[in-house]
Amino acid sequence: MADPRIIDVTLDERTILWRSADIEQERRIAIFDLLEENRFAPQRKHADGYEGPYKLHLRVEEGRLALEIHRADDSPLETLVLGLARFRRPIRDYFAICDSYYQAIRAASPAQIETIDMARRGIHNQSAELLIERLEGKIDVDFDTARRLFTLICVLHIKG
C-alpha cells in the first residue's frame, strides 16, 4: 500500500560550516514539522512497486541539490539532482530577511516585527512554489512540504 511521505530526513553536515542558534532552531522546527505531516511521492515507478515511506538525505555539491531517497529499511531508491541557479537569489533574500527578523525580535516594535515577518513569509512562499515547479514530474510534494524543504535547502547553504 502506498505511503507517500518522509519518515526521516538528514542533512549533509559536511557542507554546513556554521549555524547560529536561530538557524539551528529553524532547522529543528522544519524537520519536526516535516516529519509530522508531509506529502512526498517520487514519480518514478520501481520494479517492486515500492511507494513509501521514504528516508531523505539532502546535500549540496557543485551548486546542485542532491536528494538521496531511500526506502524505510535504508536501501537506496534513487538520487535526484536539481540545479540551484534559480534558487540563488531567493536563498540570499531569505537569509537577508531572516537576519532582519532576528534583529527585530530583539529590538523592534510588534508592528515592525510583523511587517518583516510578512515579507519573510512571502519570500518563503514564493520559494516553495519554485521548488514545487522544479520537482514537477520528479517528486509530488504539497506546499507545506516544499516550504520545509526550502528551509532545509537554505540551511545547507550556510558557509560561515
Break the fold down into its secondary structure elements and pairings.
Blueprint: E1 6-11, H1 21-36, E2 40-42, E3 54-61, E4 64-71, E5 76-83, H2 88-107, H3 110-135, E6 139-141, H4 143-156
Parallel strand pairs: 1-3
Antiparallel strand pairs: 2-6, 3-4, 4-5
* Strand percent estimate: 15-25%
Number of helices: 4
Cα distance, first to last residue?
44 Å
- Round the Cα radius of gyration to an integer and report it: 16 Å
Percent of residues in helical segments? 40-55%
Elements, N to C (H/E): EHEEEEHHEH
The pLDDT mean sits at 89
Task: Give a short summary of the structure.
This protein is of the alpha+beta class. The protein has four helices and six strands, in the order E-H-E-E-E-E-H-H-E-H.
Core attributes:
160 residues, alpha+beta, 4-stranded mixed beta sheet, two-stranded antiparallel sheet, 4 helices, elongated
Structure description:
The chain has 160 residues and is α+β, with helices and mostly antiparallel strands. The chain has helices at 21-36, 88-107, 110-135, 143-156; strands at residues 6-11, 40-42, 54-61, 64-71, 76-83, 139-141. The chain has a 4-stranded mixed sheet, with helices on one face. A two-stranded antiparallel sheet has the order 2-6. A hairpin with a 2-residue loop joins strand 3 (54-61) and strand 4 (64-71). Helix 3 packs across helix 4. It is elongated. 20% of the residues are buried.
